[in-house]
Each structure stands twice: as C-alpha cells, then as structure tokens.
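tool_log.txt
---
The assistant was asked to compare two proteins side by side. It first ran the structure predictor on the initial sequence, then on the second. Raw inputs and outputs are pasted verbatim so the downstream comparison step can read them without reformatting.
(1)
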Amino acid sequence: MSEPSTEWQPRRFSFGPFVLDADRQLLHRGGVPVRIGGRALDILAALLERPGEVLSKRELMARVWPSTVVEEENLKVHMVALRRALGDEAVAARYIATVSGRGYRFVAPVRREGLPSPVASYAPGAPQTSTLPAEVAHIFGRREAIEGILRDLGESRLVSIVGAGGIGKTTVAVAVAHAASRHRADGAAFIDLAPVADPAFVPSVMAAAHGVIMTGADPLSGVVHALKSQHRLLLIDNCEHLLPSIAAVVDRLIRNLDGIRVLATSREPLRLRGERVFRLGGLACDIRPVAPSEEARGFPSFALFEARAAERAGYRLTDADVPAVAEICRRLEGNALAIELAATQTTRFTPVQVRELLDDRLHLLRLNTTGVPVRQQTLGATLDWSYSLLSERQADVLCAVSVFAAAFDIDGALAMSAGDADDVLDTLSQLAAKSLLATEAGDGKVTYRMLETTRSYVLEHLRRSGKDRAVRRRHAQHVCALLEKASSEWSKRPADEWGATWGRLLDDLRTALAFAGQDTQERALLIRLTIAGSSLWNHLSLTHESHAHFSRAVREIDAAGLAGSVSEMNLQLSLASTTLFTRGFAPEALTAMRRALEIAEQLGDVDHRLRTLRLMYSHQKFAGQHDAALRTIEGFVVLAGTAEPSALPDGQTHLALAEAYVGRLRSSRERLERLRRDHMRAIDHPRFARFLYDQNVDVLNILSQVQWLTGSPDAAAATAQAAVDRALKLEHSLSLINALATAACPVLFLCGHRETASRHAELLNDRVARHGIVIWRPVALFYRAALACARADPLPDAVQALGYAIGEFEAIHHRARMPFYLAVLAQALARCGRLDDAEATILKAVECARTQNEGWCMPELLRVHAAVLASTGRGADAQAVLAESIASAQDMGALSWRLRAVVDLATLWCAQSRQEDARRMLGEVHGEFTEGFATHDLVVAGDLLASLG
C-alpha cells in the first residue's frame, strides 16, 4: 500500500457565513475579505482547531507569541479585535464564549477542510465499540414505536425513549439500533449505564465502550477524537440515575461530532436542546373480557403473557382464562416486565389465582408507598407481589446477591449468603425460573445477572432489612479477595486471558470502593481494595480513575494506622506513577517516590526499591536531569545484580539509554546489542507490568536511536518498526505509544523517511489524543510540525506549530531532548529568514544541553549554530564551530552527526575553492558507512561527493 503524502495540508474552516484560510491568513464573510490583524487570526485559528474545548489564556499566548513573553492584556486586545470583526457583541457571542477564570471556547458548529485523515493502515488503532445486544426474535406490539423512533432519528441527533421501568425501553432501543446501524457507515455502539453508580465514571465508561483507554484527565476528549470522522449511532441505556452527568457528556459529543446520533433510554428526558422525546407506553390490553382466545392473542399483552407462560409451564391461553389474563394485563398497565413476571407464576397457579394474588399485593402496596423511589413505583406492585411469593431462603439469597453490579457466579453467591453449594445453587435456579435472575452459560460455567429494575427493588428491601452494611461489607471483601488473587496471577498468565477472566470485576470494584469510601470504619478495607484494584486499572489503562483512588487512599493512611507500612509503600508508588501520566512531571510525583523508597528501604523490600528507583530514574530523565538519572539507574543495576537478577535486563536497558543521553554511545550500543542477543523474550511472554512497558519494546526503542546515531540508519529504521510491530501485537497501548514517540517518529524523521514518519506521527497523535497521555502529547505535535517544516519552503504556520509544541513540553516540565527540539526549531526559523530568532534559539539549545549534560545531540546543535553563522556572513566563525562539531561527534562515535557536519564544512570549502580538501574529508567519512545509502543524509553526501569528482 502506498504511503500517504506528507505535504502540509491547507487548513480551511467554515462557520456561519465565514471561511478562514488559516495558512494564507485570510478571513472571508460571504466571499468578501474581512480586515483583521494577523494575531487575531492566529487566535481564531487556534479556537477553530479545537471547537468546543476551553483554551486557556496561557495556551493561546504560547500559540500566538511562541518566542515572546507578553502580558495577558495583549491577548485581550486582539480578542476584542477578533470579536469586532465577527460582528456586533451579540453576533460575536454566538461564536466565541469567555469561560470565566479559564479562557475562551469556540461554541458554534465548525466545518473543517483539508485536515489529515486518520491512519487506516493500523487496524488495531480503530475504535473498538461495544457490540449491540442480540435483537429479540419476536417483539410484541412495538412495530409502530420502532418505526416512529427511526423517523425521529432521521430528523434529530438525539432521541430519548422515555418510559416506566420494565416497559420495554431497552428491547425497543436495541431493535431501533440494529435497524439504524445498517444505514450508518460505522454501525452502532451500546453503552449500558446500569452498573455505574458514580456519575464521575460516566466519561470512562463511554471511553471504554469505544476502545479509548483512559489514561489522561479527560477521557471524553479521547472519545471525541476517536469518533471525529465516524458516522455512528450511540445507544446509551439506563440513563435515569445519572441524568446531569450523562446529559453533559451527550451534549459535548453532539456539539463536537457531526456524524454521531444518540439514542438514549431513561425514565425522564435528558432535557437537552434539540432532543426528541419518544414516550413508550404499555402494551395494548383493552380487550373485551368475553372475547375468545384467538381474538385476545391479537393484543400484544396477551401474546406476551402466553409466550412467557408457555416457556415456563407449557401454558396455552383458553377462552375461559381470557377475563383473568385481561385483568392482569390491565392492572399491570401493559408493562412488559411485569407481565412476564406474572406469567412465570403459571408454574404454580392458574391465571385466576394469579389475578387474585396480584389484587392482594396491589392493595398492600397502596397502603405502603411512602418512601418508595419514584423509579420503582410503576413496577412496585408486581415486584412486591413476586417477592412475597418467595420463600424466606429465596428472599435472603436474592437480597444478598443484589449487591453485585455485574454478573456473578456460584462462588460469589456463596460468599454473600450462608449455606452449602448445593443449597445456594438450587436457590439460584429457582430464582432464575421466576425471571428474577437471568442466566448466562459459557466457558463451562454459569453466571447470573439481575435485571436492573429488579435489582433496584431488591436493594431497597436489603436496605430496609438492616443487613445492608453487613452484606455490602462481605461483597467488598469478596471483590478484594478476587482482585488479590488476580494480582497474584498477573505475572503468570497472558494479558488477554487474564483480562477475560478478571476484567468483569471493574463495576463491582467501583461499587465496593463506593461503600468503603463512605464509612470511616472501613478505611483499612478501602486501602486494601485500592491496592488490590491496581492490577485491574493498570491492565485497562484506567490511569486517571486509579489516580483519584490512590490519592484518596493515601490521604487515609495515617487515620488507618498504616503509616510506614507495605500498604503505604504500594500506594505511594502507584500514586507517583499515575501522577506522571495524568499531570506530567509534577513535584508531588517525586515526593511520593521518595516516600515509597524510604519505606522500601526501612522494610528491606528489594522489589519495591527497584520499582521506585526505576520510576525516579524516569522522572529525572524526563526532567532533563541526566547525571542524576544515570546515578539512579546505576544504583538500580547494582541492587538488581546482587538481590534480584530478574530485574537486571531492564536496568541494563535503561542504563544504556542514560549512557546515550550523556554521549557514551559506544558503550550504550554494545550493551543494547548484548541485551537484544541474550535477553529478548518471546512475543507471548505473559506479562510486562513490573515497569509499565514491555522490556523488549524498550530495548528496541533505545537501540534504534543509538543505531542511527552511530551510523546504521537502515538498521535503526528496521529496529524502530520492529518495536512498533511488537507493541501492536501485544495490544498494549503504553508500549505502543512509547515505541512511536521514542523510536519510530524520531528515527524515521532523522533518516529522512518522511512519508513513513508522517504515518507514524499521525498514529501517535491519534493514540495520544484518544488516551489523553499528557507526557507524550507534545511529542506528537512536534513531529507533525517538524515534518511540515522539512519541506523546501516551510510555511509560517508549521514553524509556529513547532514553537507551540515546545511550549507544551515546557508546560509539563518535559525537558528530555529539549536541546534537539530547539535545534529543529532554529533550523526552521533560519529557513524562513528569521535569522535573529534562529540564533537566539540555537544558543538557548546549546546552553540547555550543557546544563542538562545532554551530550548525544551536541554535535548537531553546533552544526545548526554554524549554519546560522554562515547565513549571517560569519563564515570563519562557522568553520570553527563546525570543526568543534566534527570533533565532538568523533569523540562519542556519532557517525551520523559527523556526516552532517562534514557535508556543511565541505560545502563551505567548495565556496573557497578547496574542492580537493572537501572531497578527501567527505570521502573519508562517507566511506565509514556500510548501509543507509538511500537515506536523506547519505544521498546528499553522495551527490556532493559525485560533484567533486
């Protein structure tokens, strides 16, 4: 397949009567140019690129004035000019909203043209949506409703099916979704909110439903990114208990995604602008009491009753039973679930007896409705009646298992309810026969699930019984024990197998944490649950969610009497790790690491000392503290070598990276080649969780960089691609993003493989946006802009985007490779004729490299400085700096940097008629290469050498 073009695409935005050509800095209104300044246009372009999102004042100032420090007043002045250009105050407010204390947001619909499309060649990167539940084979009496909702979906982007609990909203919605998905290019996704108790988890549930792994602070931004070009129906089921949160989520999705339609089921509307509400009533049951059975079967309520009774008891409607069944259906107001529950009683009673029992329970409920939630009153009579028919044992087991938020098995039921396995299993079977539990069989075992309406009702009984706290505590302890078992298997089973077994516990973990977090007597259980859940959160990459739980648990450590314990050590280490991903290299991350290391040393815990040292090394490396990082990883290697040899390969891998950063390239490459030869594991090795990333991917990432630096560009490109391929096979997002950010993008960019580099940069941008990983977002921005600047005549916007990316690095204190990033910016500035800015930037880069001891790129910084000097007529100074660059590269074995500097010096000598010296010098360096002759630098060097004869 041919690679996509890397040409910088024109960016055009249309909104209202306006069209902005951002590259040409032209704004038109109805085809007529609008007079407006360049800074105001830059602000408008920034807002239009991220419509609906709040851009802080700092972000906007970094974007519009990338190389200059300005006061906030400057921004305000240009914002006033921009709003004036868009119209009077009222008109302008329709486009740009001020978010008090935060920044500005573009609030009108935007049509974008000429933006790069998502990368199609990576199937694993495509959104993986939850499939629709199977369509019910026969739906009674809902054809007109389904057709009406389909018409509404054709006219509105949001349709809510509203009705009482058990009325059949989900059944109808699923049928509608199946029909509608056939006309949507990207089908439909199903999001069930029934198990979600905390509204804070709505965004993460939405993200999970679309294959968006939640690692950043705003998972919904990942969903928006993943669905940007999609034409999909979202079926969001059971919204009523989370209305404010789900309404906010749906509103944001609809505002940002033109191709999305939302179908929601709820007991009340979402109350959003443009929402179509379809109120679903009961099944028709207004039949003559003396009608024959054949006529009765024409009414959906009768047909449903007979179908369910036939399934349970082989029942067939007779003329004599019509009056009783008619009364049952009428009393139940055509509620589908209520009718099904009534029909199951025909295993024990005649329809006449069922009607009489129902009368009694309706009477009782009318006398005792105080305090019953509104959402339960419609089905309350039938459920109360069904509940009253249970034996004491059946009722106890039903209440006990109602605390499960998701499916449970016999072991779960035994943990909740006293009794032997045969007794509990028999009771569960009886409850399933009464339609109070649904059963699912698979993988040689049976699991049970309670309908949400039934569960809500039974939980109320449990609360009134006074046993609620005891049962919920047993549930939390059971979930904790399962997760602790899961954690013990984490390093012993393949990832997909482990996830299939334990991933189902997420909703129950959330439920258990909600219980433990509300009771100060359960602090120790809360902490134990949080630690036990860490493997599950890590597997699902729910970094933001886990960070919130780790933060809360750490706050409870002292009160729980666990200061200095293994529990605190685990929590502090987890808090440090998740802080890095969600907040960047913040000081609190280092504080947590130091506390974890202190405890590990006091306890003599080697494994946690290693984990903490590894994390501290990463923090120091990213912060540009390369000498400190080298000392830390050397300490790691010494400790691993004496106390935990299994961790030694990982330590050696990152010791090689630390050596590379300070310029010890020969030692680094030797170490990495040895690791690749002796310690590479099979692709199906069970886990890589010890240090967050797959170790083999880490080896390949670092080796590819060092291979390029030391003069093996073909090997470097192949190694970088191997790292990406392995991460894709592992289906581990953090490893893939790491491979793209540290190997594929930089190495392919340096090799000059611009088309392939562009493809990888787009994939990196997609994954970072989808997963919200703070530390890698600037890398994606940088390489996309750097590739645009590599063209013969870089556009000002591309250069500006480079500056913006560097500003983002600085905002999160990401200092590693900063000298190199600044050098690329300096080159771009020089090529645009901004020589003063270029010189200031490259001098800043040199100073940064010396401060951070980032020796690996010093030859390139000196070469770029020399190029700027030569462009300003200081040829002698340029030659001196190039000589320093060549010597530096030769000392550290950086053959690729040395070639670049020699090409530049040979070019200067040719201008001075020193062709023979140039030929001899260039030929010597060119001859040291044994591969890579099709890469950009070697092609340039070869052409120059040929011209010199």
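(2)
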Amino acid sequence: MAEAKARIKPIYIEDEMKESYIEYAMSVIVGRALPDIRDGLKPVHRRILYAMHGLGLASQKPYKKAARVVGEVLGKYHPHGDVAVYDAITRMVQGFSLRYPLIDGQGNFGSVDGDAPAAMRYTEVKLAAAAEELLKDIEKETVEFVPNFDGFLTEPSVLPAALPNLLINGASGIAVGMATNIPPHNLSEIVDATIMVIENPEATIEELMAQVHGPDFPTGAFILGKEGIKDAYITGRGLITLRARAEIREDKRGHEEIIISELPYQVNKARLVESVSGLVREKRVEGVADLRDESDRSGMRIVIEVRRDERAQVILNQLYKHTQMQTRFGVIMLALVDNQPQVLNLKQMIYYYLEHRKHMVARRTQFKLARAESRAHILEGLKVALANLDRVISLIKESPSPDVAKEALIKALSLTPEQAGAILDMKLQRLTGLERGKIVQEHEKLLAEIVELKAILASPPKVLELIKEELLALKARYGDRRRTRILEMPPEEFRAEDLIPEEHVVITASNAGYIKRIPVSAYRMQKRGGRGMIGMSTKKEDFVEHIFAATTHHYILCFTNKGKVYWLKAYQIPQARPQGRGKAIINLLPLGQDESVTTLIPVREFDDRHFLVMATKNGFIKKTPLREYSRPRSGGIIALNLDVDDELIRVGLTDGDKKILLATSRGLAIRFNESQVRSMGRTAKGVRGITLADGDWVIGMGVVGGKKAAVLVITANGYGKRTLLSKYRTQLRGGKGLINIKTTQRNGPAVGIRIVNKADGMMAITSGGKVIRSPVKGIRCMSRNTQGVRLMMLSEGDRVVAVARVPGQGISERRET
C-alpha cells in the first residue's frame, strides 16, 4: 500500500487538461485533418493508395471489390472504422469532387445530387493513372517507412508524389481550432508555375499568377473577379465568389428560358432545384412558368421556363442572389510542414513541393547508383573469371565443396565474396563468345550510367532539370483545358442594373447640357415630309445636339470638346417624357470650365477585339483599342490630345477591319480603309483623315461595314438623301474627298451623316426641339451630286442639328390618341 502511494504523483487538473488537450489536438491535426504539403494527402488517403498498390490494383489491372480494399486498409494500416475508409475511397473516385480523381471506380459512387454511394460490397475499384504517379518509385527507397499501428508492418510516411497533388486536387478538413480549404487547380498551369520557380527561384507571386490564373474546379462554373484569388495566393487566405454557368435562350415558341449547365463547386443540384422551387412557391421569384431537371449522362441541364411577359435576365439575377447559384469559397491554404500546421502562399506551396521532389530524386538516384555499382562489381568479377577461365575451371574441379571453391577463387584471383559467389552461380552458357560479349557490353553501359548518376547527385541544377523534364511529361499526359472560367467583373453585391429590365431607349442631349432617355416606343412612326412631334422641350436659345439608340444596360462613353471621356450607365440617365427637357448633364458628370459633351457613344462591353475611331473638326482621325477606355477615373481621362483650335466631333466603334467615311459641311466626303490608321495609344493626337479647304470642317464620320448599306446625309434646311456606298470609291487617307451632297442656299450646309440599311429608321431633330421619325426606305436613294429631297418642314429660324439611326429591331409603331 505504501509503495502504491509512493508512485502517486499529484498534479493540477488544469495542467493535465491543458497537456492532454494539446496532445489530442495535435493528434487530430497530424493524424486526421490536415494534408501533408509534400504529397497533399491525409493519412487515410495515403494508406488507401498504398494498400491498393500492395494489392496490385494498377490502372491497367482488373477491378476488385471496394470491400476488399477497405478490409486491407483496416486490417493493416487504419483501424478507425470502415465507414471512414469507404467515404474516403468514394471521394477519390468522384469526378465532381476531385479535379484529377485518384481512384477509378466501377458502380454507383454517388452523384452531384447528393445521392449516397452503393454499399462497398457492390462497387469495385482500382488505382487511377494519376495515383500511380504519386506512388511511382516508392520501391526505390525514396521515402521513409514507419511501423503501422500494431508494429507488425510498415507504411510510408509520405508518398514520392511526382504530381503536385495538393495544388491540383486541393484539400479540406477541420481540425481542432483550425481548418484548411485548398481549392483545386489546373495541372498544366501548376506545372508551368513550378517550372518558372525552377528557372527563376526569385519569381514573385505576381509573376506566378501569370501562369496560375486561379483555381480550376471540377464542376466548372465561373469565378467572379481576381481580388479573392490574389489575396489567397499572396496571404494564403482569400474569399472567391463562384457563379453557375447559365444561358438565356428562346424555345420554339419564342419564350425565354434559362439553361443551367454548370454549378459552383460542392453545390448539391437536387437541393438547388428544390430551393428554386420554394422561391417560386413563396413568390419571392416571380415569372417562372416551369422548372425541369433534364440532366443525363451527357451533362447537367436545368431548364427554367420564363413567362412571356417577364425578363429572364432579371429572374436569373434574383436566383444568383437568393440561391446557391452564386456562392463563396473561403480559401485557407493550411498544410503540414514538418508536421507543423502552416498557412502558405502560392510560392511557398510550390517551394515545399519542389524541395520534396528534389529529395525524392536524390534518394532515387542514390538507390539506382548503389544498384548499378553492385551490379558493376559483380560484372568485374565475371570479367576476371572469363580472362582466367582455365584456371577458374581447374580450381572449381579440384575443390571438394562450393565453400572451398569460393575461398580458392577469392585467394587466387583477389575477388570479393560476392564476386566469387557470382562466378560459382554462373551458367555454362555464359562461357560462349556471345555471352562473354554481353557481359563486357553490360559492364561498359553500367560504368557510363554510374558516371551519369554521380553527376546528378553532385549537381543540384541537374536534379532540377530532371524534375522539369518529368513535370513536362506529366503535363503532356494529364494536362487539359481549364473548366472554370474567370470573369473580370468584381464579386460585389448585385447592383441596381442587375434587377433593371433591359429595354431599347433613345438618349437625347441638348447643346445647353440637358440629357434624358426615352423608350423607343414613345415615338410613333411617321411618313416622309411630316412635321414631327416634340422630342425634347428646350429653351429658345437651346437646341438638341445628340440623339442615339441604346439599351438601359449599355455603357455610355461621354466624349467632350476638350478631348476627355467620362463614363455613365444608360439607366443612370433619368427617364423623361418625350416633351421633357431632362436633367443637366453637369449633375451627372464632373465637367470642367468651358467643357461640354460633344459625342456620346453606347458600348455593350469592353474587349480587345474592338476599337474606338475618333474624328476631329480639323480632319484628324485616331484609332485606339476599346479596352483602353474601360476604366475612366471619376474626373475623366484623356481621350486624345487636341490642337488649340481643334475639337472632337465624332467617335465610332469598329472591329479593326472596316472602312471609314468622313464628311464635311461643304458636302464633301472621303472613304478609306481603317487599316490605313494604325492603332495608337489613348493620348495620341492621330493622323490626317481628310484635307480641308479654308472655312470647311468635318461634320460627321461613318463606320462602313457591309456593301449594301447607304449614306444618309441631312442638311440644315431639312433636306436629305440616301446614296449607296458603292458610289463612294475607296481613296487614300488624307485626300480631299468626293462630292457627297450638293450644298446650296436652298438646302443649306450638311449637318450630319449616318450609315443606314433599308430596315432602319431615322430620327432628325431641330434646334427648336422638333423630332421626326421616318423609315429609311421612305427616303429616296439618289446619286452623290444632288441636293436631296425635303425630309422635314421647318419653322422660320429653325434648323436641323442632328440625325440618328434607329436599328430595325425593336421599333414598333405607336399611334397617338
């Protein structure tokens, strides 16, 4: 009893609980929850792959029951329950969970709908080809083996991992007080980034991001914006917004429908469909006529039919906001480094993977070297025996036993025990001339191999070059295209425009700086020669200067007489009645002193395929990529540099392969190829487009596409005409041009031109605010050298100041009551 009391050690319960909790926490962190930075695997996954390797379940071999694998793993390496093991196997099979599955399964392993997999007795598995790359060279003493749970077997502490598994497949897990959530990536991009680090160890994360554009999820979909990606790669933590891939189409009846083909990573399709149905029932989302899941083996397809009078885009935006069609993925790149949890940035993850591969290649090379040296040593003994063949035979014949013969050979020929044993084991057929030649040839080949292996071990650059070659081979074998597309738009909350129906509008702006938007349908169709209807109420000294058609979702680039550009959304322009004056543009744009808007141009989206072509009053022209104007500052940006006496009078949107038409107030015009104007920077002045006579100036510019179009020209006194483009021969840029319209005192100077088709409409507006809207086909097509016909009856002192083309689509006649 006294001895038992002597062995009792009093301790504080606080200290015991603290120590025990830390031990428990580290056991969970290291043994269950977090992946190793080297092979990207948790212990259960590593044990499954190694057990399958031991069973011979290679990718080219037949399948075996999953229950057989589970039993092997439980009995030898992982005594934690069959459910945990089978769940891990299931996830490594699922193509919607891993970007590059590690197990090839046959049977039901669950679905994106959240269906449970079949029981393990019904399914079959074998290693996928990618998993074999993780296990490659494991027999070559590349990794350390540790005792298993009962000490009777050994298991690898890590896999050789020729593939950068942690980055390409990602990982997730919850430990004690910490969690990891590493997204999957595209193998080709990760290989390119790893090679960049090999070639330039000082490469920055920004440089690596030129190769690794972002996560690449197995379910595809979209990533919105790059800020979350950048945060994750620089700090190891970031928030990425994912959005489903959805497309709006028209069915055979002309009704709009939303087709969903890809969902964000880890979103349950069945629950998503159920949540959409619930929103419709609760009338939180209105306008849905039908909802169907038409997914099959060919892919995902969820169909949402939209009622006839509803806007599909508005419904889609509501679904993004209220369902998992848009989710967020919180990146936490936490992994075990030397059995210690660390949050790593992108470069650190690549660095530790490279360090692991360098260690693996070095150990593999050392293994090959030892084997080659051992074999070369044996061959050297065989060569000695062949050189002294008669003596060797004599010694063997005279020896009473193999042991005596072995000792005799060692003493007589100065051989090692291994060499002497190999001589005694040699078959008589090796004594033929052919076999003797093979021994010599093999020995020479081994000596060359030994030199090469020693050179690799002595040269770190050669080790890196070998890793680079292996990575390129893996890229060629397993590399594929990205599935997840990264959109430039920021992952912000839905803006007002996302819930605003898109409709065709006419935007007008007066010389005094008032602007408004009006639905196209507000203007009724009139015949040629009509008196028009009020399109904008103006003061006596004001007149309408700009008019064009757009939609409420267009961007409006506002170019000023000072050569600056400002940015608006069409829906931000206040809507008003046709008779209304609108709102002062100075309240919408931060215009400077003596600065006025001279040109407005609608743009749907900014890209690298289109250009802005600008014409100035003095005849200069400039072409700049549209993307250069995608992010104006609040105070505006420079559109082009102007001479003191020059103004920016017109901007056109082109695809780089159009023809440009410039027209002057004296009725001249020049047509030339856009290719004659090279692409310039945003602040460039431009080049000469047309040579002007004294007192003449450029009044307009047209971007010419198809050959069947015509030039519509309007004069100040309300006259105009159409002339086929074919009547304007192509000239060299900088010439004086051809006659466009014959200007006289009767019809007045030319004030505007437009490139039109027969299906289009036109709108002309006067300084008094009168508007006429007519179909283009009602305007006579005439030769160039004519005065035109009367298009509009003008009041005394009134004059036409602007003309706009209204596209044929979306124009419906509205009768006045």
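---
observation on (2): The chain has a mean pLDDT of 86. The radius of gyration is 39 Å.
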